[in-house]
Amino acid sequence: MGVVPARIRADLGEYLRHRRTAMAPPDRPAAGRVSRRRVPGLRRQELAEAAGISVEYYTRLEQGRAPRPSREVLTALARAFGLAPGARDHVFRLAGELPPEPLAPDSEIRPGLLRLLRGLDETVPVTVHDGRLDVLARNAAAAELLGPLPGAGEYRRNIVHHGFTAAARHVLGEEGADRYARWATAELRSALGRYPDDERLRSLVADLSASSAGFRDLWTRGEVATGRSAEKHLHHPLRGWLTFQSEMLHDTERDHWIVIYAPAG
C-alpha cells in the first residue's frame, strides 16, 4: 500500500474515532442494570472484528499511523459502521480514494423532489431521468411542453431513444433535433462508461445501431457528454416556439438528473 499524507491520515482517524464512539454498544444492559463499560460506543476490538481486520491495524488507522488502507478495507469499515452511501463516500475521500461507483441508479425519486415538481406544475417544466437515461417523472408543465411519452415499446421512457423519433423533430425542429441527437448519443456513451456491464444500456445501443443510420454515425464519433446547460427552442403545442434555458442538476447519491426548463425572456 502507498504512503498517504499525514493530514489525510489524521482526518480519517478522527472521523473513524468519532463514528465508533457514536455507535451503540452490543447487548446494552436493560434499564436499572449498571454497565461496566468505561468507553462510549464500540471498543476498537469490536469494530475491528466487525470489519474483519486486526485490532492493531484498526488502532493505527484511528491514530493516523497506518499507511493508505486498501479499497477492500475501506469497504469493510463502511459496512461495519453501517454507513449510508454519502458517509461511505466521505470515508473513501478521506483516505485519498475515489468513492465506489453505484451498481445501478436508484429506482425511486426523493419525495421532496416529487413535491417540488408538483409545486412547479403551472410555471416551470421539470423532468427527472436516471443514470440509464430513462424518464422517472415529469411535471404537468413538462408533459404539456414535450408531449406525451410513446404509448408502447421497451424504450418508451428513454431520452436517447426519443432523440431519434419524429416526435423529437416536431418539438425541437430539424436543427434542434440534430443537436439533441448528438448530445443524447454522447450521454449514452457516458452512461455506459459508468455502468459498463448494464444489459439495458448495451441493448439500447444495439437497438439504435440497427434502426438508425444517424445514430450509427454519431456513435462512431466517440463523443462523451459534458454540457449541462443550454438554450433550447421548443415548440409548445398551444403557444408556438418558445425559448428556454435548460439546466441539469445531479442527485449523485441516486444518480438522478433533474432538468429544469426556465423560460428565457
From TrEMBL:
Gene Ontology molecular function: any one: DNA binding
SMART domains membership: HTH_XRE
Domain HTH cro/C1-type: 41-88
Protein origin, superkingdom: Bacteria
Signal peptide segment: none
The protein, known as: Helix-turn-helix domain-containing protein
Natural source organism: Pseudonocardia broussonetiae
Lineage: Bacteria, Bacillati, Actinomycetota, Actinomycetes, Pseudonocardiales
